[in-house]
Design a protein that fits this description.
Order of helices and strands: HEHEHEHEHEHEHEHEH
Radius of gyration: 17 Å
Bound molecules: pyridoxal-5'-phosphate
Strand order of the largest sheet: 7-6-5-4-3-2-1-8
Shape: globular
Helix content: 25-40%
Number of helices: 9
Strand content: 15-25%
Distance between the termini: 26 Å
Largest sheet: 8 strands, parallel
C-alpha cells in the first residue's frame, strides 16, 4: 500500500487530541472496508466497533495477523450467532436481554473464555431502539450478580445506550445523564461484589453527540462517520 496522507488517521488524531484522559475511542468501522481499518491501525488505533456478526467475522478473518486489534460488538445480536464472535471479541456492548446473557455465558464457557459485556439500556424515544428498560435492567443485574456462579464466563463492565436521534440537545443530555446515574447506582451496589461484577464502563456518544456524552460522564465513545466518512448502505 502506498503511504499517502490518511484522512482517517487525521480524523482519529483530531478526536483523540480533544479527549479528556481516560476516555476510550471505539472507531466504528461498520460498512467500511478492511482497508480503512488497516489505515487506522497503521496510524496506531487498535479498538474497532462492528454491528453485524457476519461482517465482523469476515473482517476478523481477514485481519487475523493484526492480533492486537480489540473488537467491540455494538449491534443487534441474535442468540444463534453468539458462538461466532465469542472466540475473538473483546467486548459485547449490546446485550439486550437475559436470554442473550445466558447464551454468551454458555458459549464462553464452552470456549473457555471470559467475555466483557455491557448491558444496553433503552432510554431513547424511538420504539425501534432496543435494550433493557430501567426496571428490567435493575432486576436483571440483581439476578445475575446474585447468581454469579452461574455467570462465571461473563464480566459485567457497565452500561451502554444510544440516545434519541434529535437536534434537541436537552433530550439527548437527559438520556445521557440518566444512563450515568443508573451506572453510578449499580457501581455503588455491585462493583466487585464478586468476580463477574466489575463496573467501570459507561459507553455513550456517537459522531454527532460524543462531546455531550463526555460532559455527562461517558468513558467510552463510539464514533464512526466522523472518522471514516458516510457509510454506503
Ligand atoms: C453506527 C453506530 C455508531 C457510530 O455512529 P456514527 O454516527 O457513525 O458515529 C455508534 N454506536 C452504535 C451502536 C452504532 O450502531
Amino acid at each position: 500500500m502506498k503511504s499517502s496522507h490518511s484522512f482517517i488517521v487525521e480524523n482519529i488524531d483530531k478526536i483523540k487530541a480533544q479527549l479528556p484522559a481516560g476516555i476510550k475511542l471505539v472507531a466504528v468501522s461498520k460498512f467500511h472496508p478492511v482497508s480503512c481499518i488497516v489505515e487506522a491501525y497503521r496510524g496506531g488505533h487498535r479498538c474497532f466497533g462492528e454491528s453485524r456478526v457476519q461482517e465482523l467475522v469476515s473482517k476478523y478473518e481477514e485481519l487475523k495477523d493484526y492480533s492486537d486489534i480489540e473488537w467491540h460488538f455494538i449491534g443487534p445480536l441474535q442468540t444463534n450467532k453468539v458462538k461466532f464472535i465469542v472466540p475473538f471479541v473483546s467486548m459485547i456492548e449490546s446485550v439486550t436481554s437475559l436470554r442473550l446473557l445466558q447464551e454468551i455465558q454458555k458459549q464462553a464457557s464452552k470456549q473457555d473464555k471470559v467475555i466483557d459485556i455491557l448491558l444496553e439500556v433503552h432510554l431513547a424515544k424511538e420504539e425501534t431502539k432496543s435494550g433493557f428498560d430501567i426496571q428490567e435492567l435493575r432486576d436483571t443485574v440483581a439476578l445475575i450478580v446474585d447468581s454469579a456462579g452461574a455467570y462465571a464466563h461473563i464480566r459485567l463492565r457497565g452500561l451502554m445506550t444510544i440516545a434519541t436521534q434529535t437536534d434537541d440537545e436537552a433530550v439527548v443530555k437527559s438520556e445521557f445523564a440518566t444512563l450515568k446515574s443508573l451506572f453510578d447506582e449499580m457501581k455503588e451496589k455491585y462493583h466487585e461484589k464478586n468476580e463477574m461484577s466489575y463496573f467501570d464502563t459507561v459507553s455513550m456518544g456517537m459522531s454527532h453527540d460524543y462531546n455531550l456524552a463526555i460532559q455527562e460522564g461517558a468513558n467510552v465513545i463510539r464514533v464512526g462517520s466522523l472518522i471514516f466518512g458516510e457509510r454506503q448502505y
